[in-house]
From TrEMBL:
Entry-linked InterPro entries: SET_dom, SET_dom_sf, SET_domain_protein
SUPFAM superfamilies per UniProt: SET domain
Official protein name in the record: SET domain-containing protein
Domain SET stretches: 60-210
Length: 393
């Protein structure tokens, strides 16, 4: 297919078997605009009408200020409880990753005229760690700031990843410890930022740009592409022993499924100790706390709760379930958890805030204690409300 032009400007480019086109997201509310460079087969799959995003907190829970050698940063304007919504943001631009073609400068620059003057100023105000001699301006800003988002892709299309440039979320600097997470909502073409733990007034709000479970040397090597050496609290450690201890903890968490017993095999093996999963996963939670990897507790708390459930220990199941709900969802009227109903014979109890999609119905059956409850429990899983946001570069 030949390159197309609109008003004398090219709007379509070919790279190998892919044809990329410039489009605008179907945003009709407010003054938001979003220009996109997409593989052509993706365009018909996008919503023709986008939902209105949920409102962010008013007054805002954050402000942008100088963060020293890091440049601008995002800070808490007031105390933010775990699970609280911090902001809702829409991308100004959506771009493909790993496109290395002779026309990329022209294609990326074609996005600028398709966004409003206000949004263009916000885009150009973001940091750019890439030299203009090697990268077009918009691509450089995208590689510095964009986070991976999911878009519908036809099964026959060439696999392609995309990143969105979010003007507010981009202000959160990197840390190898987590205090926020991003949830992308394709229906409204927006991303919501949530607190993973309590954040104090004036505390900096951090995101993650890379795989934070990698050893420190690998993390710093990955972050070098952004033009800085990470000196966060989890990298700027006092001595080699502290670095080795941190690296070992993160490596153990990364390889956990290969090194430690899992819930389902344990639940079917009556010869294993009753507290096998509980003791193992409590260790994981301690490592997560040590490394500040908030938000990673979910699968471990899930298995602890389910271990109590299949043993018929409803009291501990409820307690861990409620604790897990607070970790994932926060507390109070803003908590976003769901209710888990537990029916142990004739008594029905509830764990409010357990973050699951369905109810758990624990009904005694014949057989060893663990197996009596297994059939009705194994289908239940926590549903994480957040997804990790990884920089596009």
């Amino acid at each position: 297919m030949g390159d197309l032009e609109t008003n004398g400007k090219k709007t379509e480019w070919t790279w190998g078997t892919q044809t990329f086109v410039v489009e605008n997201a179907a945003i009709s509310d407010g003054e938001d605009t979003c220009a996109m460079l997409l593989d052509a087969p993706v365009v018909p799959l996008l919503p023709k009408t986008l939902q209105i995003p949920p409102p962010g907190p008013n007054p805002p829970t954050f402000f942008v200020a100088d963060a020293g050698i890091k440049g601008a940063g995002m800070f808490a304007a007031r105390d933010i409880p775990a699970g609280a919504l911090i902001l809702v943001d829409r991308p100004i631009a959506v771009v493909p990753s790993n496109v290395d073609s002779p026309w990329k400068r022209e294609a990326f620059d074609a996005l600028l005229p398709r966004i409003s003057d206000i949004e263009r100023d916000r885009l150009l105000a973001l940091a750019n760690c890439k030299p203009l001699s090697e990268f077009p301006l918009v691509e450089g800003i995208a590689l510095t700031n964009a986070f991976q988002i999911s878009l519908p892709v036809p099964p026959t299309a060439t696999p392609q990843e995309y990143g969105g440039v979010f003007p507010d979320i981009s202000r959160a600097n990197h840390s190898c410890g987590l205090n926020i997470a991003v949830k992308w909502d394709p229906a409204s073409f927006s991303a919501s930022l949530y607190a993973l733990r309590p954040i104090r007034t004036g505390e900096e709000i951090f995101n993650q740009y890379i795989d934070v479970l990698a050893p420190r040397a690998d993390r710093r090597a990955q972050l070098a592409r952004y033009g800085f050496t990470c000196m966060c609290a989890h990298c700027d450690l006092p001595d080699a022993a502290a670095v080795a201890r941190s690296d070992a903890a993160r490596t153990e968490l990364r390889d956990w499924r290969h090194l430690h017993p899992r819930f389902l095999p344990w639940s079917l093996d009556a010869c294993r100790a009753d507290d096998t999963i509980i003791v193992s996963n409590r260790r994981a939670l301690a490592l997560i706390e040590q490394e500040g990897l908030y938000g990673m507790q979910v699968p471990f708390m899930e298995e602890i709760a389910l271990s109590y459930a299949v043993m018929g220990d409803e009291a501990r199941f409820l307690r861990v379930g409620a604790e897990g709900g607070r970790v994932v969802c926060g507390a109070g009227p803003a908590a976003r958890g769901r209710v888990c109903a537990v029916d142990c014979g004739s008594e029905e109890l509830q764990a409010v805030g357990l973050a699951g999609e369905a109810e758990v119905d624990i009904r005694p059956a014949e057989g060893p204690c663990r197996l009596r409850y297994l059939d009705s429990v194994v289908a239940y899983r926590f549903k994480p409300l957040f997804s990790s946001s990884i920089k596009l570069c």
